[in-house]
TrEMBL record:
Species classification: Eukaryota, Metazoa, Cnidaria, Anthozoa, Octocorallia
SUPFAM superfamilies, alphabetized: DNA/RNA polymerases (SSF56672)
Organism from which the protein derives: Paramuricea clavata (Red gorgonian)
Keyword field contains Translocase: no
UniProt keyword Nucleotidyltransferase present: yes
UniProtKB keywords: Nucleotidyltransferase, RNA-directed DNA polymerase, Transferase
Entry-linked InterPro entries: AlkB_hom8_N, DNA/RNA_pol_sf, RT_dom
GO molecular function: 2-oxoglutarate-dependent dioxygenase activity; methyltransferase activity; RNA-directed DNA polymerase activity
Protein name: RNA-directed DNA polymerase from mobile element jockey
Pfam families on file: ALKBH8_N, RVT_1
Leader sequence residues: none
Length: 272
């Protein structure tokens, strides 16, 4: 099952046979992969693992020297020990600083190859910028959603029922704007929210060309994008507050136990 498996590759008139690992699509495959990466830990840094994506973060105080190269070397050594190979071409470095003069650090190397320094990086479907603004992310998802509007037009021309068109919109278009929205929703400016709403306006204009936008929500059971994102974000927050075992529960501030009655009471203390 795991040994002496070969895969034949034919390109033009050339054939190559190479050793391959676990068969893809098996139930055992993901568990074997988890066992291989479970012991990967790097000292003095924050490390997050999600399937084959690994992220390392290091807070550096003003005037101090970064030790991220040591952490990367340690990670590379552990990967080689587990017979994993880091793809340095896909590894990126991003720095987040709000200082007037950006700190300059030594370049990071993996296998003697310098890691590219970028201003924006895509992490688990989110486009994170060095200034922690969401302009780039919104621009990307608007562009992606706009390409799917073309298929909505084709379905409309094929005289697909309006009910099915709404299902396609909610499933294939609106789901793009709602993905991981609790992360970025509260950081959206008004004009970015308007950009997201334009996607819905264009889609509903295709589905209901003779109905005004204000009447459409009553007809196709859709909602203002801002309200949808607000609802999803509030729902996640309530789930975190109600479950002490939630993975994100430790991020909450301390509960406000003050006995003083205020006009606007707070459940949590303001972070200091």
């Amino acid at each position: 099952f795991l040994k002496f498996r070969k895969q034949r590759i034919k390109l033009a008139n050339d054939c190559k046979s190479e050793w391959i690992g676990v068969p893809q699509g098996t139930k055992l495959g993901p568990w074997l992969f988890v066992l291989m990466i479970e012991d990967i830990k790097v000292t003095n840094t924050d490390l997050w693992k999600y399937v084959d994506d690994t992220t390392i973060a290091e807070p550096v105080e003003k005037g101090e020297i970064s030790n991220i190269q040591t952490a990367v070397d340690e990670l590379s050594e552990m990967s080689n020990r587990s017979k994993f190979q880091l793809n340095e071409r896909k590894c990126k470095e991003i720095g987040i600083s709000f200082a007037r003069y950006q700190p300059q650090f030594e370049p990071i190397y993996i296998n003697d190859n310098e890691i590219e320094v970028v201003k924006t990086v895509k992490l688990l479907g989110l486009n994170i910028s060095s200034d922690l603004k969401w302009n780039c992310h919104v621009s990307k998802i608007v562009k992606k959603a706009s390409t799917r509007l073309y298929f909505l037009k084709q379905l409309k021309r094929a005289k697909v029922a309006e009910k099915e068109l709404v299902i396609y919109y909610i499933t294939c278009i609106r789901s793009i704007t709602e993905y991981a929205c609790p992360v970025f929703h509260n950081g959206l400016s008004k004009y970015l929210s308007i950009d997201l709403e334009r996607i819905q306006k264009r889609a509903l204009r295709i589905i209901y060309p003779f109905t005004s936008y204000m009447q459409m929500p009553l007809k196709c059971v859709t909602y203002h994008p801002y309200m949808t994102l607000e609802t999803l974000t509030t729902k996640l927050f309530e789930e975190i507050c109600s479950d002490p075992n939630h993975k994100l529960y430790h991020l909450l501030s301390e509960i406000n136990r003050s006995a003083v009655n205020l006009r606007n009471s707070r459940k949590f203390n303001v972070p200091t």
